[in-house]
């Protein structure tokens, strides 16, 4: 269970004043010392409580959240934990009533402040990685029992929502990037993975499972009706409603993985960087519909320069704030080709070296989403790009050639009709070894792109000189790659070409 409320108060009260409370269960309130307090009527008649160290009587808006899971109660103030009780915590019984700005009988009223956005949930909201909401709840979120916007209506804004089936044609999932572990969810560790759908109505919410996640949290970008995307750290609920003023009975939704952290465990059965979608809900009586799906498909394997590392800068404390796959060359090229695409890029990754988060070298990992989840090639891509080799710069050239040949032989055997394009790493590392591997495989379905001169530091790179800025990737690098690809795509029959 979760109880959450926004509140403000301009001075310490003379006695306890209740923000949200039930005489028979407990309350969230302000003490005479100015602290936030959460009290629970325990299972043994005691009253365990959590009290903030900081005062909240500064007349600024704060968010108080009480999360109860089993016999454990955790209190949050503005997203930060203020305390945890691990025993004798009670749960409300059937028919328990709660009051807002006081108990349900009006006593202990909050007379020196205000309350807004009160929500009550049937689940422990974001117990593993709690973050205070940055947008009002929609009223259609999974597990939401009651929602009061307190905008003058004083009515419950929650409804019985319509939930999407994550397995039917109304949702398109980017190919080769999402696991279906059997619990009804879809999960990915790949920056650039996306889903898209359409829906009617004006309310929409995503539900996510964050139990495995750790900080810094992976981030997703949400775009409705083609409007500029908003980015959110993964949390139990993320809004996906249309922006104010957007007209039309139906809306197009696109949710993409913006960034995942290179410093967390990726290659485990329950990755810390995963984005786990468990549901999409919309207003009562509304419907989901299939999105536009392009017929061409494309897959890209690479390293951090494919993942989107440091496209937004390199001084931000959190790498998830520095990275954005949407403005990397890989996503830009695929989008400009009007292709549905899967991007598999990991920092530090190579043909002979493991990548960040424990991802094995490409010849071993190419067919696995993460341990226990196979990457299905029941449908093969029309076009496959490979940009690996930068992180193999110190490896033996013969070992790189052997690894590249192994990868090309494996993927070529799996997807015999796929046009494969091997790119020179932008910094040129191991290019002769890659060329030798392509020649050794001898497939007319493999082409090469010589990227010499594509990555110009004058157009923006990070302090390593390896990672392009968003401007460099979008305005210079992607157009150069696209020009070369268009030559290859138009070539008939397929041959081994090197394009400059």
Describe the protein's topology.
Layout: E1 2-9, E2 17-22, E3 26-30, E4 35-40, E5 49-55, E6 62-69, E7 72-77, E8 80-85, E9 99-100, E10 113-121, E11 144-148, E12 162-163, E13 171-173, E14 186-188, E15 194-200, E16 204-208, E17 219-224, E18 230-233, E19 237-239, E20 250-259, E21 275-282, E22 288-289, E23 296-302, H1 304-307, H2 319-322, H3 329-336, E24 339-345, H4 362-365, E25 368-370, E26 373-374, E27 383-387, H5 397-414, E28 419-423, H6 431-441, E29 446-449, H7 470-490, E30 498-499
Parallel strand pairs: 23-24, 23-27, 27-28, 28-29, 29-30
Antiparallel strand pairs: 1-6, 1-10, 2-3, 2-9, 3-4, 4-5, 6-7, 7-8, 10-11, 12-21, 13-15, 14-21, 15-20, 15-22, 16-19, 16-21, 17-18, 17-20, 25-26
Main traits of this protein?
500 residues; alpha+beta; Jelly Rolls; Rossmann fold; 3 domains; 6-stranded antiparallel sheet; 30 strands; 14% helix; elongated
In short:
The protein is an alpha+beta fold. Helix content is 14%, strand content 31%. It folds into 3 domains: 2-133, Jelly Rolls (Sandwich); 162-289, Jelly Rolls, CATH 2.60.120.260; 296-499, Rossmann fold, CATH 3.40.50.1110.
Structural features, described:
The protein has 500 residues and is α+β, with helices and mostly antiparallel strands. It is 14% helix and 31% strand. The strands form six sheets. It has a six-stranded antiparallel β-sheet with strand order 8-7-6-1-10-11, with no helix packed on it. It is elongated.
Helix content: 10-25%
Number of spatially distinct domains = 3
Q: Give the count of helical stretches.
A: 7
Rounded mean pLDDT is 93
CATH superfamily of the largest domain: SGNH hydrolase
CATH class term of the largest domain:
Alpha Beta
Please summarize the sheet with the most strands: 6 strands, antiparallel
Task: Trace the largest sheet across and list its strands.
Answer: 8-7-6-1-10-11
CATH architecture group name of the largest domain = 3-Layer(aba) Sandwich
Distance between the termini: 60 Å
Q: Give the strand content.
A: 25-35%
In the CATH scheme, what's the topology name of the largest domain?
Rossmann fold
| Uncertain residue ranges | 493-500
Number of strands: 30
Radius of gyration: 26 Å
Give the helix/strand class.
alpha+beta
- The backbone outline, from C-alpha atoms, is elongated
């Amino acid at each position: 269970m979760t109880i959450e409320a926004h509140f403000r108060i301009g001075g310490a009260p003379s006695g306890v004043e209740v923000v949200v409370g039930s005489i028979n269960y407990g309350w969230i309130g302000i003490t005479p010392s100015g602290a936030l307090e959460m009290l629970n009527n325990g299972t043994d008649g005691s009253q365990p409580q959590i009290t903030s160290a900081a005062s909240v009587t500064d007349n600024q808006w704060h968010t108080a959240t009480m999360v109860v899971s089993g016999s454990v109660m955790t209190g949050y103030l503005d997203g930060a934990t203020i305390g945890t009780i691990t025993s004798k915590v009670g749960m409300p019984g059937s028919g328990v009533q709660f009051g807002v700005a006081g108990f349900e009988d009006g006593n202990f009223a909050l007379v020196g402040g205000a309350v807004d956005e009160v929500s009550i949930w049937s689940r422990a909201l974001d117990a593993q990685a709690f973050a205070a909401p940055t947008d009002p709840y929609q009223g259609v979120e999974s597990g939401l029992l009651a929602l009061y916007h307190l905008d003058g209506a004083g009515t419950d804004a929650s409804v019985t929502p319509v939930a999407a089936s994550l397995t039917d044609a109304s949702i398109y999932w980017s190919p080769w990037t999402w696991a279906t572990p059997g619990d009804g969810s879809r999960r990915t560790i790949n920056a650039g993975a996306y889903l898209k759908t359409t829906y009617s109505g004006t309310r929409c919410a995503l539900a996510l499972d964050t139990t495995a996640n750790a900080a810094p949290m992976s981030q997703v970008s949400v775009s409705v009706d083609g409007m500029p995307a908003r980015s959110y750290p993964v949390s139990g609920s993320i809004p996906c409603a249309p922006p104010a003023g957007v007209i039309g009975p139906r809306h197009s939704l696109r949710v993409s993985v913006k960034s995942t952290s290179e410093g967390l465990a990726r290659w485990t059965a329950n990755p810390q960087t995963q984005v786990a979608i468990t549901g999409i809900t919309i207003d009562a009586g509304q419907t989901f519909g299939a999105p536009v799906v392009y017929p061409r498909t494309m897959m890209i394997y690479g390293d951090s320069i494919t993942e989107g590392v440091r496209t937004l800068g390199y001084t931000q404390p959190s790498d998830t704030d520095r990275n954005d796959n949407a403005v990397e060359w890989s996503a830009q090229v695929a989008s400009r080709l009007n292709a549905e695409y899967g991007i598999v890029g990991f920092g530090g990754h190579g043909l002979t070296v493991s990548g960040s988060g424990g991802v094995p070298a490409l010849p071993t990992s190419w067919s696995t989403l993460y341990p226990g989840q196979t990457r299905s090639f029941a449908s093969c891509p029309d076009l496959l790009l490979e940009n690996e080799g930068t992180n193999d710069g110190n490896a033996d050239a013969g070992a790189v050639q052997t690894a590249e040949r192994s990868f090309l032989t494996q993927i070529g055997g799996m997807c015999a009709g796929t046009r494969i394009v091997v790119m020179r790493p932008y910094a040129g590392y191991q290019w002769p070894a890659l060329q030798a591997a392509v020649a050794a495989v001898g497939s007319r379905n493999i082409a090469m792109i010589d990227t010499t001169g594509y990555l110009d530091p004058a157009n923006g790179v990070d302090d390593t000189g390896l990672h392009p800025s968003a401007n460099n990737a979008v305005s210079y690098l992607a157009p150069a790659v696209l020009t070369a690809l268009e030559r290859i795509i138009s070539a008939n029959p397929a041959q081994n070409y090197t394009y400059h």
